[in-house]
Design goal:
The complex is a heterodimer of chains A (270) and B (339). Chain A is built from six helices and ten strands, in the order βββαβββαααβαβββα. Chain A is α/β, with parallel strands linked by helices and 270 residues long. Helix content of chain B is 67%, strand content 7%. A four-stranded antiparallel beta sheet of chain B has the order 1-2-3-4, with no helix packed on it. Chain B has two domains: 274 residues, ABC transporter involved in vitamin B12 uptake, BtuC; 48 residues, no CATH class. The chains are: A alpha/beta (270), B alpha+beta (339). Chains A and B meet through α2, α4 and α6 of A and α2, α8, α9, α12 and β3 of B. The structure holds adenosine-5'-diphosphate, magnesium ion and zinc ion (3 copies). One zinc ion (ZN) binds next to β2 and β3 of chain B.
């Protein structure tokens, strides 16, 4: 019997979602989403508020169960995937913190947990990775501040550093640039560019790409819980045509009156 | 009997050793409880454990082990209700707590044990800690301290950001239940010293004292253990000293009052630190504040439209109705987008 190639070897495609349906609190939020992200790709996930971008990213990291469909990470079905040190996740900004003070260093250090054994102190490699991640986001001077004292943008950068500290192969970021000022967006773009060069796969939710635009290989636009576009990067105007502007009646040029009745209800603005 | 002579009495020595260990262990667990914003969980477990103690007294088995079993069961139920996050969860927990307390007092009555026996467990007692009790207390306290300190990176991550911990592959559910079980055990070992009705204070107040001063989790954890130790031993000595004068002060209330006194002593320092930190706090990087302006706006955003203009990279956004608009010049003319 001749062993026949790759049929049993994991394909190693970082993300493969097939016909994914997700319901939250009994309400269908994602419908029939197919998404394959190849190794080394930089995918921008776009779409209006409430279109399901966060839900999709949370689903890809296993935080939302699929009600139908199939998800594989690095070629393994989610249930059989345990190699979480290969995955980094930056949640959409939450200012929620625990009820006890925590320092920036401690939050970023928790990004090393996937590399640490139980009951072992931080090794010097861990410390180096934490320090490097803090430098990338420009927060090294704040390492011993409490996270509760940070501004929203600084807190966001700490969450990015936490994900970077784990040196992931697949990095999923949910609106990492929201509330982050332009110099730090450039710093983040530089860091993601280096990660990309090192072969990392990146899925990034953004409302506006800004300095990240040159890195993007592919754009996916969500609309009303479905994938509305999947292809080469779009100019801003094109993205809007795909997703954002369908519900927009703020335009003042009377030449394109958009009747309210045509507005799909789930495109709510926040 | 002078105070020194009192310390040479075996029951007082046992009480001191218990207070020492409980004073360290209860706030260690309490730090995670407070981090999870479950400050009243210890209180709830304490109420439920009353039933365990009563059953132990009634069946003439060990009140300690009966309390361990009932407290762990109660803690796990509390954690499951919390995890489900049902709206009625709050009320369900309240009923569990009252049921535990009422059940305990009721069973004590059935057994004809007498309220004073139960009272030793409700508010602590210096006199009644047996050698066996002490050994159990010592063993459990050491286990609690080792777990709370040794697993602190994992327990910290799970309590700080459960979603992130899940993506890091940590067994979040296991650790959450572990914290609940640790809380149940600390309630039981503390019941002879502070008593079931006040145990939660020894878990929470030391954390509240030190977190006024600290900026890191680790310092809070270690500081709370130190503060708890001081309050526990200090309160016990105070109760013992007062009992020399003929008063009958139980250790539980005196430990809690010493801890609260510590809180109010530290409070001015904490307030001063907070003010100082507020002065160095950075300005927020975005300030989306909007002047109230007319709703629908058939106008071009511009210098005079009344919407707040914010520079945003290569373009200017106008804050409108809580979101930002950017002007785009597209094929169809100028329009504005939210983002
Ligand atoms: N926990 C939840 N329960 C029910 N509905 C939810 C929940 N979270 C999000 N939704 C709904 O799912 C839709 C998509 O949300 P989300 O993925 O956060 O959108 P986006 O990130 O694109 O702004 C929205 O309509 C939102 O109201
Ligand atoms: Mg979102
Ligand atoms: Zn803008
Ligand atoms: Zn406007
Ligand atoms: Zn547009």
């Amino acid at each position: 019997m001749k062993p026949n190639g790759n049929s049993t070897v994991p394909s190693d495609v970082p993300v493969q979602l097939l016909h994914g349906d997700v319901a939250l609190s009994g309400r269908p939020v994602l419908r029939e989403v197919d998404l394959t992200v190849e190794r080394g790709e930089f995918v921008a996930l776009m779409g209006a508020n409430g279109s399901g971008k966060s839900t999709l990213v949370r689903t890809l990291v296993g935080l939302n169960p699929l009600s139908a469909g199939r998800l594989e990470l690095f070629g393994r079905p989610l249930a059989g995937f345990h190699d979480w040190s290969r995955v980094g996740y930056v949640p959409q900004r939450s200012t929620a913190t625990g009820g006890v003070p925590a320092s920036v260093w401690e939050v970023v250090a928790s990004g090393r947990l996937t590399h640490r054994k139980l009951l072992r102190p931080l090794r010097s490699a861990d410390r180096a990775a934490i320090r490097a991640a803090l430098e990338v986001v420009g927060m090294d001077a704040y390492a011993h501040r409490g996270v509760a004292q940070l501004s929203g943008g600084q807190h966001q950068r700490v969450l990015i550093a936490r994900a970077l500290a784990g040196r992931p192969e697949l990095l999923l970021l949910d609106e990492p640039t929201a509330g982050v000022d332009l110099p730090n967006q450039h710093a983040l773009a530089g860091a993601l560019g280096r990660l990309k060069e090192a072969g990392a796969t990146i899925v990034l939710v953004a409302h506006e790409l800004g300095p990240l635009a040159p890195l993007v290989d592919r754009a996916v636009v969500m609309r009303d819980g479905r994938k509305a576009y999947d292809g080469p990067p779009l100019s801003d105007a094109d993205v809007h045509a795909q997703g954002f502007d369908a519900g927009h009646v703020h335009c003042d040029d009377a030449s394109t009156p958009e009747p309210n009745a045509a507005v799909p209800t789930p495109l709510k603005e926040l | 009997m002078t105070l020194l002579e009192l310390f040479s009495v075996p029951f007082m020595q046992r009480a001191l050793i218990a207070a020492f260990l409980v004073g360290i262990a209860a706030p260690a667990v309490g730090t995670y409880i407070v981090q999870r914003r479950l400050a009243l969980m210890g209180d709830g477990i304490g109420h439920v454990a009353v039933t365990g103690v009563a059953i132990g007294l009634w069946t003439q088995t060990s009140p300690t082990w009966a309390a361990v079993i009932v407290a762990i069961a109660g803690a796990v139920v509390i954690e499951i209700v919390r995890e489900r996050g049902h709206a009625e969860g709050d009320v369900a927990l309240a009923m569990l707590f009252y049921g535990g307390l009422a059940g305990g007092v009721f069973v004590t009555g059935l057994a004809g044990t007498g309220a004073s026996r139960l009272q030793e467990f409700l508010f602590g007692s210096i006199l009644t800690i047996s050698v066996d009790d002490l050994l159990v207390t010592m063993a459990l306290a050491v286990v609690l301290i080792v777990i709370c300190v040794g697993l602190s990176p994992q327990l910290f991550a799970v309590s700080q950001d459960a979603d992130y911990a899940k993506v890091a592959g940590l067994p979040v559910r296991f650790y959450s239940i572990l914290v609940a079980v640790l809380a149940a055990l600390s309630v039981v070992i503390a019941m002879r010293t502070v008593g079931l009705l006040l145990v939660s204070a020894l878990m929470v107040v030391p954390v509240a004292i030190v977190q006024q001063l600290t900026r890191s989790f680790r310092m809070t954890l270690l500081g709370a253990m130190g503060a708890g130790l001081a309050a526990s031993v200090g309160g016990l000595v105070l109760a013992a000293a007062l009992s020399r004068t003929g008063a009958n002060v139980q250790p539980g209330p005196s430990i809690v009052l010493v801890a609260l006194a510590g809180f109010f002593l530290v409070w001015p320092i904490g307030a001063w630190l907070r003010r100082r930190r507020a002065l160095v706090a950075p300005f927020p990087e975005t300030a989306p504040v909007e002047k109230p302006v007319d709703e629908a706006h058939p106008h071009h955003h511009g210098e005079k439209c009344g919407h707040v203009a914010v520079e945003h990279g290569d373009h200017v956004d106008y804050i409108h109705d809580g979101h930002r608009h950017a002007a785009h010049v597209g094929a169809e003319g100028e329009h504005y987008d939210e983002h």
